[in-house]
Structure formats: structure tokens, C-alpha cells
Amino acid sequence: MNHSHSSHRIGLLVILGLGMMCSTANTSTGQAVSGRPVSSMTIFDTTMTDFMGDNDIEAAVLGIMHEGQVQYLRGFGSLDSGVNMPENALVRLASVTKPITAAAIRRLDAQTNIDVTDFAFNLSGNGGVLNSTPFPSVGDNRLDDITINHLLQHRGGWDRSIAGDLTYMEIDIADDMDVSSPPGRSNTMRWILGQPLEFAPGARYEYSNIGYLALGLIVSLNTGPGYEGYVEQQVLTSAMWVPNTEIDDARTFRANRNAREPWYRSDTLSWNVFDPLLLVSRPYGGFDVEARLAQGGIIASAAAMMELADRYHISPGSSLIGLPIDAANPLTGSESHNGAQSGVNTFLWHRTDDTVVFVFFNRDKGEYEGSGHYGSDFITLLDPILDDGTEFSWPGTTSDGFWVTLGTELPVNGFGGYNSTYRGFASAVNRCAAGSKMRLKAGSQPFTGTISKKLLIDAPLGSAVIGQ
Fold first, then answer.
1. In angstroms, rounded to a whole number, what is the distance separating the alpha carbons of residues 8 and 398?
2. At what angle do helices 209-221 and 184-192 cross, to 10 degrees?
3. What is the mean pLDDT of residues 197-208?
């Protein structure tokens, strides 16, 4: 049943479905596996657990969408000590945040007087969109020539292979500007505008976090709800069945993380940008995660990210990045985006056969071995399996959503994952945001109440009865 009206009074609701329940599995490699088991797609269970064992990876998520339906979604390993990784974990996206930012910029282009052909920086009265005062003064006159399109396509003029990634130089920036560390997004942008460019804007492609730092500031400063609010209202919305519970700002310190967020593994120690006299594990203070908001500071679920790739162009450097996939701008080839931070590797992939894949690992290969990423290595294993199609079949059943066990309402509940269900229908309705997909496990529960938000409620595993 699809509840899309403003308010519904429910006395008796009967929902039918088919399927079976299964508890969390432990594979022969010792990895816990969470999420709805799909008997026709066990090859992906095996491929993931073997890969994790071979590479000493302790937490992962794999989601596979086909023809707009999430047909496989599983968590592997540990969310934290003694807690299995739920398939609906919220994970740091690293640079897979960038297609979200690109889509937000495209919405601004469509809705406001901001155009992607506009100059990005208003440094000398050129009418640029972003009013950032360079520190200590303009570092390169060519900064005036950078357009929003240049930022979107990584053609702004910065080359981190020459100058390094200036967005990570937070302690130095704070020292230079005589401000507290970390300096934050606005001060970091001001300091960068005081540095020289490595090439003329538009001359070539060079992947750049700086461009997306600037784009995030443009979204934040030109929308009422700010960056995250604008994304939830305009890019990944409840109308798309992406509730706001599936996307959030990342937090630097482990104590402040979301309850559904895993730990991030790194053996690298860095000076704590919040207290430069302390050494910390790099994912937890080696950089200001909040300040990387639009370039790599978002956490989200695999289901939300597959919805993104199913709807928007995602490839870095593409002239289409952030635009909707539609008749005017169709998908003409495979598109993908990698994300890497200390303790994080993500990969989002849209194939031409209308299959979307999202994968997360809680460590980054490049940090240990100097090159490459686990996400792209894993996709290399997945590609021939998906191409061949003989080792699996599409089940035509859904694996995403907020799973609910009917019966006694419990004050302490799970994550809403298949193996960590929320207990009780009434409390689950209160917990779910608009746009949530509530998947009821077979059973029954008395309920009389009002539902005044958009929810998709079904029972894919068998008969579920809600009533008096």
C-alpha cells in the first residue's frame, strides 16, 4: 500500500506478500552478512566475503539495483565491536559526495538566476557568484576567468600533483590566517584564492577538491535551507523515496557519529587539526570532515546513492555531471565515481544495462599500498559476473527499506535493517521520515492511529496484519 495522502486513519490493514525470513549469516570466511538473503545472487555474497578476507577488510556494504529496483543489498563484517554491519548503514561517501553537489548546482541553475556559465568568483567586479575575499590578496588574476562549469568539470586551474591538495592544509592555513584550527570552509576558500593557479581555467582536466569546495559554498550561500537541506528538498527527496534519514552530514569524531555509521580503519597517524599538538588516527581528526561537506563530507545509505546514480549523471569531468538522466541527456555509456579518504573507499557505478552498483569499504587501499583503490578492484571482479549473467538471476524482489517486526513495542530498537529490525508498527511509523519504505515482516499487531506522512508500506515476506 502506498500512502501518499496527507493523513490516513487506520483501523485494520491487511498486507500480503511472499518470501521467507532468515537471520544474519556467518560465511565460511567468518564474515557476518546482514540484509535480505537472495538465493539467486549468492555469487555476490561469496565474491564480497572472499575479497574482504583477501584484503583484510572488516566492514563493507554492497548494493545492486536493476531497472530501478534494489534487488540485492547486504552489509558485511562489523559496524563496531560486537555489532554486525547493517545493510542500511550510513557511510562516509568521500568523493562520491561530488555528484550530489553537481546535481544541487544543476537545480540552482534551473531554479534561480545562477547559471553554470557564470563566473564563480567575484574578485574584481566581474559579477561572479561567490563573494570570497582572497587572503592576503588575489593569488592569480586568472581566478577571475573560472566559471561554475569549470568547477563542475575539474577544469578550474588547480593541479594537486604540483601544489598538493590545498583543502587538506588546514593547520598551515589557520597559522597563516592567525585563526583557530581548523579554519573552516570559508577561510580555506579565502586562503586558496590567495594562491597561484597551475594552469589557465578550462585548459585541461585535473581532478580537484577545491572546485567542489567552492560549489558547496555556492549552494550553501544561495539557498535558504543550506547545503544538506537543499539536497533533501531538491536532489534526493521524499518524492523519490529517499527519506532524509538516509543522508546526513558526516562528523569528524567517532563519538559524534550516527548510530548507523561504521568505524573507519586507518593505521596512519596525523596531527589533530582541532588540537595540533595531538596525534590521532587520521579518519578521526586528521582533517575536518565537516569542512569537506560538498566535496566529501556526507554520509548516506547505499540505497540513497543508488537512487542518485539511477537519476543523475555521475562521471567526474563529464559535461553532463549532475544533470538528470532523461530523453534530453540519456545515459550513453557506463558512468562511475570513486571516493577515497583515509579509512574509506566507495564506488558508485551505473552500467548501460540499467544496473547500478554501490560499494563501500572501511579502509582505503591507496593509504597502505600507494596506489589504486579497493572499490575499483572489486568492481573489476564484479564486471564479468554481471556481463556474463550465468552465475546469478534477477529475483525481481526488493531488498531495501526500513524493516519492521510486528508485535510488542520496544523502547530500544534496531537499525531498521533486515536483521536489526525496528520492533513495533506504531514506533516505526514515528521513527520513519516521509518517503520511507516500511517493509513489514510477517506477523500481526493491533494498531489504530493516524499516518500523516508519505510512506510505502508492504510485506514482501508473507502476510502481515495490522489492526484492532
1. 25
2. 130
3. 98
Q: Measured between alpha carbons, how far is 17 from 236 in angstroms, rounded to an integer?
A: 28
Of 136, 159, 148, 153, whose CA–CA distance to 108 is shortest? 148
Distance of CA 290 to the CA centre of its chain: 14
- Whole-structure pTM over 0.85, yes or no? yes
Q: What domains are there in the chain, each with its CATH number? A: 2-19+401-467 (no CATH), 25-99+226-388 (3.40.710.10), 113-221 (no CATH)
Q: Which residues, at least 6 apart from 164, have a Cβ–Cβ distance to it below 8 Å?
A: none
At residue 411, the pLDDT reads 82
* First CA to last CA distance, the chain: 18
Alpha-carbon distance of 453 to 447, in angstroms, equals: 17
What average pLDDT does range 418-423 have in this prediction? Answer: 95
Mean pLDDT of 278-306: 98
Nearest to 101 by CA among 144, 153, 161, 156: 153
3-state class (DSSP) for residue 223: coil
Quote the CA–CA distance of 283 and 268 in Å, as a whole number: 9
For residue 375, the number of C-alpha atoms closer than 13 Å in the C-beta half-sphere is: 28
**What is the Cα gyration radius of the chain?**
23
